[in-house]
Amino acid sequence: MSSWWKSVWPPLMAVILFLAVWQIAVPLFHIEKWILPSPADITKEAIAEAASLTQHTWATVQLTLLGFFIGTGVGLLTAMLLHLVPFLKSALYPLLILSQNIPTIALAPLLMIWFGFGLLPKIIVITLVCFFPVAVSTMDGLTQTDRGMMNYMRMAGASKAQIFRKLEVPHALPSVFSGVKIAATYSVMGAVIAEWIGTDRGIGYYMMLQKSAYRTDRVFVAMAIIVLLSLVLFAMIALLEKILVRWRGADTK
């Protein structure tokens, strides 16, 4: 617990200091509420809108988790396929890189035209955001397998499938989780962008409504919820990593 607290308290104190300076600066410089509300004003609005925010947050959580699991699955399958088939990797890997140069928000109108306003275009948006970091990290992890161990298993008569399952995949787990943690934070952002495409619920929808009404305090509430969801999902993946990759720490002792 002490080591955990030592890693947590510096950023926590920085956030508290930032909020304190913000709270003091707003009345001190007579900043209008519609331009920059104080943290106290934002907190009051969050409490007042709790019922509505709960419904919108739950809708975003459902969309985020669905898109995250699909995007992560696509990323893992893509990485394994490209790793096992070197020709496909040399042919498709540059295209994966190029695909990330297209802004996701720019694809939204096209997805609406092609797939309508239902769930499918939203899932595609989140999948596009999530699969790339998972695919790249997994491929990097698979290519960094201990060559000495690999040669030993080959001399022992292990098949390619056995080497992949028993050596390459376990050694790639830390890299896999690095990509999954990035995808976890991106998935919330992807869900919010997806909700801008067209929906009647969700934090992204709520944010667009409040922006149109110049309710800056409610926009900040929505932003705080997005950050909180990202942190919670990241922490859950980090905990899962700690459980599944515990063997790695034991090997290095």
From TrEMBL:
<dbReference type="InterPro" id="IPR000515">
    <property type="entry name" value="MetI-like"/>
</dbReference>
<dbReference type="Pfam" id="PF00528">
    <property type="entry name" value="BPD_transp_1"/>
</dbReference>
<comment type="similarity">
    <text>Belongs to the binding-protein-dependent transport system permease family.</text>
</comment>
<feature type="transmembrane region" description="Helical">
    <location>
        <begin position="123"/>
        <end position="143"/>
    </location>
</feature>
<keyword id="KW-0472">Membrane</keyword>
<dbReference type="InterPro" id="IPR035906">
    <property type="entry name" value="MetI-like_sf"/>
</dbReference>
<feature type="transmembrane region" description="Helical">
    <location>
        <begin position="63"/>
        <end position="85"/>
    </location>
</feature>
<feature type="domain" description="ABC transmembrane type-1">
    <location>
        <begin position="57"/>
        <end position="238"/>
    </location>
</feature>
<keyword id="KW-0812">Transmembrane</keyword>
<keyword id="KW-1133">Transmembrane helix</keyword>
<keyword id="KW-1003">Cell membrane</keyword>
<feature type="transmembrane region" description="Helical">
    <location>
        <begin position="172"/>
        <end position="199"/>
    </location>
</feature>
<protein>
    <submittedName>
        <fullName>ABC transporter permease</fullName>
    </submittedName>
</protein>
<keyword id="KW-0813">Transport</keyword>
<feature type="transmembrane region" description="Helical">
    <location>
        <begin position="12"/>
        <end position="31"/>
    </location>
</feature>
<feature type="transmembrane region" description="Helical">
    <location>
        <begin position="92"/>
        <end position="117"/>
    </location>
</feature>
<feature type="transmembrane region" description="Helical">
    <location>
        <begin position="219"/>
        <end position="240"/>
    </location>
</feature>
